[in-house]
Amino acid sequence: MAGQVKKVPTRKCTGCQEMKNKREMLRVLRTPEGEILLDVTGRKNGRGAYICRCRECLDKAVKNRGLERSLKVRIPEETYEGLKKEIESIDER
């Protein structure tokens, strides 16, 4: 059993539809209370959808309604604006 390769979890981006390493992506979460937020820890309770850490993928996910399909809820425009601001603040770090 020596030298066993550890499996790297992958997730599909709801924007560009590419499979990537889970750690490279952002998790958008629908909490049991119904609010939509960005889960930076990746451990909060709720239904999650993943997007790449770029603005273009979020824009694609908004356009093709990928986040709404994955989270199974209608997402208001102001929630998308909040997500865009949070992604931009992460990009600046």
Describe the structure.
Helix content is 33%, strand content 24%. It contains three helices and five strands; from the N terminus they run βββββααα. The chain has helices at residues 55-63, 66-71, 77-92, and strands at residues 10-12, 19-21, 25-30, 36-39, 47-52. The strands form two sheets. A three-stranded antiparallel sheet has the order 4-3-5. Strands 1-2 form a two-stranded antiparallel sheet. It is globular and about 50 Å long. It starts with 9 loop residues before the first strand and ends with a helix.
Strand content: 15-25%
**Rounded to an integer, what's the Rg over CA atoms?**
14 Å
Q: In angstroms, what separates the terminal alpha carbons? A: 40 Å
User: Roughly how much helix do the residues carry, as a percent range?
Assistant: 25-40%
Helical run tally: 3
- Largest sheet, strands/sense/barrel: 3 strands, antiparallel
Mean pLDDT figure: 90
Flag low-confidence runs: none
General form? globular
Topology at a glance:
Elements: E1 10-12, E2 19-21, E3 25-30, E4 36-39, E5 47-52, H1 55-63, H2 66-71, H3 77-92
Antiparallel strand pairs: 1-2, 3-4, 3-5
What are the salient characteristics of this protein?
33% helix; three-stranded antiparallel beta sheet; 3 helices; 5 strands; 93 residues; alpha+beta; globular
Condensed summary:
The chain is an alpha+beta fold and 93 residues long. The protein has helices at 55-63, 66-71, 77-92; strands at 10-12, 19-21, 25-30, 36-39, 47-52.
